[in-house]
Cytochrome P450 2D15-like
Amino acid sequence: MEFLLVVAFALLVVFLYVRNVRLRRKYPPGPRAWPIVGNLRDLARGEHRVFAEWRLKYGDVFTVWLGPRPAVVLNGQDTVKEALHKHGDIFSSRPDLFLWRRTIRTRGKGIATAPFSREWKETRKVALTWLNAFGAGKQSLEPTIVQEAQDLVQVFKDKQGQPFDLTVPLSLAASNVVCSLVFGRRFNHDDERFCRLMEIQSRYFRSNASAQALNVYPILRHVPSVRRRMEEVVTCSDELRSFVIEVIQEHRETFDPNNIRDVIDGFLLEEHQGNRVLSELPEDNIINAIRNLFLAGSDTTATTLRWALLYLVMNMDVQRKVQDEIDVSLRKQTPSMLLRDHLPYTEATIREAQRIRTIAPSSIPHETTASATILGHQIPAGTFILPNLWSLHMDPKYWPDPERFDPTRFLDADGQLAPGTESFLPFSIGPRRCLAEQLAKFDLFLFFTSLLQRFTFKLPEGAPPPDTEGIFGFVFSPKPFEICAIPRV
Ligand code: HEM
């Protein structure tokens, strides 16, 4: 009996080995992977840094193994553009991840996690149409953002130059812009419901990050400690979902097709008018789409601003130049996008922050819908794709000494913004590129300029320089740090 068991086990190992060798031949080459864990042990050192080492060894297209799942990593601007842009119809789906399935309930519905389909295209189009209709990325939204920026200035002033963590006030301000567009209302920074919501959102991001192992090994859900993490993700997700359902319901009850108030009303109008695709979809579609906008809308912009301020306190000469430019071009005027051309160094500083610390280093995972050839490598249909945006932004060919914070990289010899920057795609590219790129650019410019116009940011007396290594979560963010906002006179 024992002998038979040993033989069976040996046969299983041989079978798995042969299967693995065959499977590996179907994908571009990459680092040696271990059985069961694949390359996860190496990736724990920080995937963007490990990818940089492997790019040198295996080239711009290589395969890593996330446990038993192969993932093809695309590096460098030519590769990423060729795949996501030129072959956008093949490289624009999303994988079916265990945690997404558990939290989103109806796979295929909504925007950010939906596979490439007619329904996703239509839902994205409707969201974009109504975001634009309410001024996203346009002059008409400026007063809303400026109002949020002024409230933020007041919150910072109330700190009276004492050290504080910027995370919560920045997230509330950025989130409020999205709430105005999507829900038709904003919240005070001390509104209980809003603060609760933001707390759930940040718990959702944290728990989601700590439960990622489930996407690789769903079987771990039977291990009590992992199960508890999964339950935390699902609980937070359900609470956010209930909030969105409640707001959509309020909108349904007061809906007037002649008075469209926000993006939710925009979706209801499409349904009301019998939009051929949307009206056939379950309620989950609008719930997920609205949830996507809400979740994507706060941490992204707020984290970019945190990175920017972190680098400014470490580079006080850059901070002074930004302030000098703002003082000369704006004097005491309220910041406006119309004046962006007069503030090239300020805009270049924002871009440099986006380059040096990309908040989505491997974008959101993509999946191929058909087989394709990229740089001579055959990539099968249904392959998990990681577009390595970090590799573009840290490519020494385009950005010499890439770890040096230097906004002048984005300026020409006359100190103006250089047109058509190469190897820079913080919002990704192709059919899946960020839906709200224009809105985010407005947010970043107006918040950043308003803050630097009114404050000098410094590290607390005697504090060590903040860590620039960052932590992975929903986005790649700085480790918590405190800062002093000293009012400028
Ligand atoms: C600095 C701010 C932001 C950055 C750097 C950023 C970056 C990105 C990136 C890299 C992606 C993935 C694209 C891909 O899969 O190839 C993405 C997707 C997305 N972003 Fe943003 N984003 C920002 C702000 C926002 C805001 C404010 C919103 C909403 C109001 C938003 C909504 C979305 C949505 C809905 C998607 C999914 C698009 C789809 O799957 O079709 N983003 N963003």
About this structure: Residues 111-112, 124, 178, 292-293, 296-297, 300-301, 304, 359-360, 363-364, 387, 426-428, 432-436, 439-440, 444 surround protoporphyrin IX containing FE (CB under 6 Å). The mean pLDDT is 92. Strands lie at 61-66, 69-75, 366-367, 372-374, 377-379, 384-388, 455-458, 471-472, 476-477, 484-487.
